[in-house]
């Protein structure tokens, strides 16, 4: 859902109706938004409004979900996640194409046909439904419902290092305000890999599983648990897809060391499909996002003399409702913070 502007209120009402109608159905919410528009540095009012909206929107949507995945960087262009893309934030559909590709990839296991425990498929592996993903990511000891979405678009080759980054190194966040280089011993990960390449050819499902599992053995801090879903089929690029690929991306999504063409952008006529990798991550690296939402809600809206108190009243929020939001955010922060302290002490 787009939770920006007035859409946030619509999304909250919609989710409330869904939760009431389907009481035993877990809800996985991707709250997606486009780039943050430039704000006049001298416009304190605009900054307060934006920060309060983000805090209130997150607080209103969270109670109706089992998992919530904030998605959308303030500036996708120039971010690490767009290393092999040529994004212009102001152009229509550039950012939405990336987020749509990421959501399509991470949700692929929900559409896979499950196979029996003794059966196998040469095309897909790792089918799961939403309830199983919720139990895996949020059903652990700390009950963390706020997930980080990482993506590798396109995913690098699995055969050694290409452009000095491996697949795990190339999975970078599309969730804003995420801490880097966090050693979280309680992390849990859910990963999908589509159409991975190895030595110039499409890697088999079993090859991908073996190579990814081997890669996890060579990182300093491994997740306490992770699930891997694999599809032999890459992500197809439809004709209407915007021209967002850099000139280091080949026809099958392979990454090359030198520019293929003089043009800085390549579209669907040049790139027919790409290997993709996406990951949902339950990690204390999401703490900065939660802390900023909590800090802005208290400092700008609840405390005596807060500059946004009148604005919140005009939005229809009373102080007791805002305090409930603050308590909910505080619990999320404490749950992750206490486990981070525990991990560090170990």
UniProtKB/TrEMBL annotation:
<protein>
    <submittedName>
        <fullName>Protein misato-like 1-like</fullName>
    </submittedName>
</protein>
<dbReference type="GO" id="GO:0007005">
    <property type="term" value="P:mitochondrion organization"/>
</dbReference>
<dbReference type="InterPro" id="IPR036525">
    <property type="entry name" value="Tubulin/FtsZ_GTPase_sf"/>
</dbReference>
<dbReference type="GO" id="GO:0005737">
    <property type="term" value="C:cytoplasm"/>
</dbReference>
<dbReference type="InterPro" id="IPR049942">
    <property type="entry name" value="DML1/Misato"/>
</dbReference>
């Amino acid at each position: 859902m787009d939770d920006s502007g007035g859409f946030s209120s619509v999304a909250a009402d919609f989710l409330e109706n869904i939760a009431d109608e389907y009481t035993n159905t877990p809800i996985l919410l991707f709250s997606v938004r486009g780039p943050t528009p430039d704000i006049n540095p001298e416009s304190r009012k605009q900054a307060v409004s934006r920060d309060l909206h983000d805090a209130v929107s997150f607080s209103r949507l969270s109670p109706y979900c089992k998992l919530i995945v904030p998605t959308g960087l303030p500036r996708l262009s120039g971010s690490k996640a767009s290393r092999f893309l040529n994004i212009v934030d102001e152009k229509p559909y550039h950012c939405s194409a990336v987020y749509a590709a990421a959501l399509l990839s991470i949700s692929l296991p929900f559409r896979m046909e499950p196979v029996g425990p003794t059966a196998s498929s040469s095309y897909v592996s790792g089918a799961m439904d939403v309830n199983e993903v919720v139990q895996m990511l949020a059903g652990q000891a700390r009950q963390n419902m706020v997930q980080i979405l990482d993506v590798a678009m396109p995913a690098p080759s699995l055969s050694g290092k290409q452009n000095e980054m491996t697949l795990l190194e190339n999975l970078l966040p599309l969730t804003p305000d995420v801490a880097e280089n966090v050693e979280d011993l309680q992390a849990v990960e859910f990963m999908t890999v589509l159409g991975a390449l190895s030595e110039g050819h499409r890697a088999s499902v079993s090859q991908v599983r073996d190579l990814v599992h081997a890669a996890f053995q060579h990182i300093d801090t491994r997740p306490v648990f992770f699930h891997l879903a694999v599809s032999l089929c890459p992500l197809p690029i439809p004709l209407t897809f915007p021209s967002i690929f850099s000139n280091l991306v080949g026809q099958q999504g392979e990454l090359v060391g030198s520019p293929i063409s003089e043009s800085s952008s390549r579209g669907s006529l040049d790139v027919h499909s790409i290997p993709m990798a996406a990951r949902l991550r339950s990690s204390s690296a999401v703490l900065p996002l939660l802390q900023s939402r909590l800090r802005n809600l208290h400092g700008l809206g609840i405390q005596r003399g807060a500059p946004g108190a009148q604005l919140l009243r005009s939005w229809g929020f009373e102080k007791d409702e805002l305090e409930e939001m603050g308590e909910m955010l505080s619990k999320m922060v404490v749950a992750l913070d206490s486990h981070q302290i525990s991990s560090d002490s170990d």
